[in-house]
Amino acid sequence: AIRDRDVLADTMAALLNTTTDPDARVRVVAAGLELGPRLGEALASEVVTESLTLLDQAEDILGQALLLERGLFVAGHFGQTETVTTFVSRIHKLLGAQAEAGVETIQQLQSLLAQSFTGMRRLGMRDNISHLLDQMAELVRTAQARMSGAKQNASDQADLQRTMLQVASGWFFFGHDENAWPVLDEVREQLFSAKLIPI
C-alpha cells in the first residue's frame, strides 16, 4: 500500500535489519523480492543476496521454491546475469533432489516451473529452460510410475497431468512437438474416461 519509493525502501530496510526469526525473515525477504522493481536496484540487490543466504538454510521446499522464483525474477529485471545464472543453477539443484517427490511436492514446484520459464525465456536461456522442462517431466513420470503399482487416485493423476500440461506448453513453444503431443493425448484420454470429478 506504500506508494512512495523512499518510504517503501526505508520500511523494507528496517524490516531486514530487525527481523531475526528464521520463518519471519523468509517472509520478509519474499515480500522484498516481490516488491524488488519498486525498491531500486541497490536495495533489491541486497534482498536478492539475502535470499541466496536463506536458501542455504531453508529446508522447506515451498519456501525454497518461493525464494528461487522471485529471486530469479528480480535478478533478471535488473539484468544481473551472473546472479540469474546462480538462481538457475539452484533451481536445477532443487529439482534434482526431488527424485522421490510426491504429488503434493510436485504441485508446489509447479509455480516455480511456470515463473522460471517466463523469466528465463525473457533472458533467452533456451538450454536452461529445456533442461528445466526435462527435469520436471522426469519428476512427474517417476511419480506416475510409483502410482501405477498401487491403487490409482484419479485426483492425484489429474494433478500430475496438470503439471505435464505446463511442461508441454514449454515444449510446444520451443518446437518440441513430438514430446508435447503425447501429453495432450493422455489428458484427452483422461477427460473422456469420465473418471474425474467435475471440479
Characterise the protein shown here.
- This protein is mainly alpha-helical.
- The protein has helices at residues 5-18, 22-34, 36-39, 41-57, 61-77, 81-96, 103-122, 126-148, 154-173, 177-193.
- The protein is elongated.
- The two termini are 35 Å apart.
Helix/strand layout:
Blueprint: H1 5-18, H2 22-34, H3 36-39, H4 41-57, H5 61-77, H6 81-96, H7 103-122, H8 126-148, H9 154-173, H10 177-193
Helix pairs in contact: 2-4, 2-5, 4-5, 5-6, 5-7, 6-8, 7-8, 7-9, 8-9, 9-10
Characteristics:
single chain; elongated; 81% helix; 199 residues; mainly alpha
What is the compact description of this entry?
The protein is mainly alpha-helical and 199 residues long. The protein is built from ten helices and no strands.
Rg, Cα atoms, Å: 19 Å
Secondary structure class reads: mainly alpha
- The portion of residues forming beta strands comes to under 5%
Q: How many H/I helical runs?
A: 10
Topology order in helix (H) and strand (E) letters: HHHHHHHHHH
Overall average residue pLDDT: 85
Ranges where pLDDT stays below 50 over 5 or more residues in a row are none
Principal-axes shape call:
elongated
End-to-end Cα distance, whole Å, is 35 Å
Number of strands: 0
Give helix % range. Answer: over 70%
Which oligomerization state do the chains in this entry correspond to? single chain
Largest sheet: none
